[in-house]
Amino acid sequence: MTALQGKYLTLLLDYLKKSYFPFYRAVEAVKLEHENIFTNLGDFACNAAVNAFGEDVIEKMARAYAYFVTDANKEQLKYCIRGHYRNKTYKEVFDSVYDNDDYMQNYHWGVFATTFLWKHHLEIFKFFTDRFLNQYIQNRSRVIDFGSGSGIWSLIAANQNHDLSITGIDISKSSLQIAKMLSQGAGLEKRINFQVQDALSFCSDQKFQAGISCFLLEHLESPADLLKNLSMNLAPDSPCFVTGAITAAEVDHIYEFKKESELISLAESCGFRIVETFTGCPAPLNRSIKFLPRSLALIMRKKQTELW
């Protein structure tokens, strides 16, 4: 049975069709291929955004999505030419990206929209819900979300499993403000606690029963530090869902994973056993391109012994 598309998702698609038609055509293809999950996640995200920020946020989201995708495509092309990411340190990214308020407005809402408008992100969402949340998470679990950003992964988890208690950690005050308002817009604020903390040094008195960290590793100079701290904050055998970008040269990506095996090996060396994996990627426009941007999702468990 096909899900019925809601008012605000329809409005977003209308804005894309009217003002950003090349982007709309790609999004329409995603909708046709994955109509039910596209509609369910898109409606949930758009409704939470409107409840939190008002209807004008939909037009802002359409504009931000077009801006973000254009910028990402340009950066990917430059990456294929130069052979390496533009920035290698957090300071470089902070000076050129994070300290630019105008850019960050488009960045926040553009990234938020890619969760359901990009085919490979939508497929990772399906892997997250169908496999991780349905098969590995126990009821009444305490969950930690490292690098929660807009909070979308915490919101998805809390919306699907009403028994979870989630703590979202992010170093950005502006991201956490958006996350808190979105949680209120989704009616989930009582079960998600967003905190301004550094995920690399956060330490809880009580171990968590599950962990999430989506699309943060590539933003770090040393992603091993994040995975080690995530492991330290989890109880033994706790399930964990982690994603990372592979050869995807968005302007604020620092650490360059070139092979899926690099991220898998890194996670194994930081205290995790890999249980399931999924790689999503857009269809390449040119088969001869040097780097294909893709996203790797890992379902892992914290090791109980040296090996497993």
Overview of the molecule:
By secondary structure, the protein is α/β, with parallel strands linked by helices. It folds into 2 domains: 7-115, no CATH class; 119-302, Vaccinia Virus protein VP39 (Rossmann fold), CATH 3.40.50. 51% of the residues lie in helices and 15% in strands. Helix 1 packs across helix 2 and helix 3 (35-53) runs antiparallel to helix 6. It starts with 6 loop residues before the first helix and ends in a 6-residue tail after the last strand. The model has no long low-confidence stretch (mean pLDDT 94).
Relevant terms:
alpha/beta; Rossmann fold; seven-stranded mixed beta sheet
Structural class: alpha/beta
User: So, CATH architecture of the largest domain?
Assistant: 3-Layer(aba) Sandwich
What is the 3D shape?
globular
Largest sheet: 7 strands, mixed
- Tell me how many strands there are: 7
Low-pLDDT segments: none
Order of helices and strands: HHHHHHHEHEHEEHEHEE
What percentage of residues falls in helices of 4 or more residues? 40-55%
**Please, what is the CATH homologous superfamily of the largest domain?**
Vaccinia Virus protein VP39
Count of domains: 2
Number of helices: 11
So what's the CATH class of the largest domain? Answer: Alpha Beta
How is the largest sheet built, in terms of strand order?
3-2-1-4-5-7-6
Beta-strand portion reads 15-25%
Q: Span between N and C termini?
A: 41 Å
C-alpha-based Rg, rounded: 18 Å
On the 0 to 100 scale, the average pLDDT is 94
- The CATH topology assignment of the largest domain is Rossmann fold
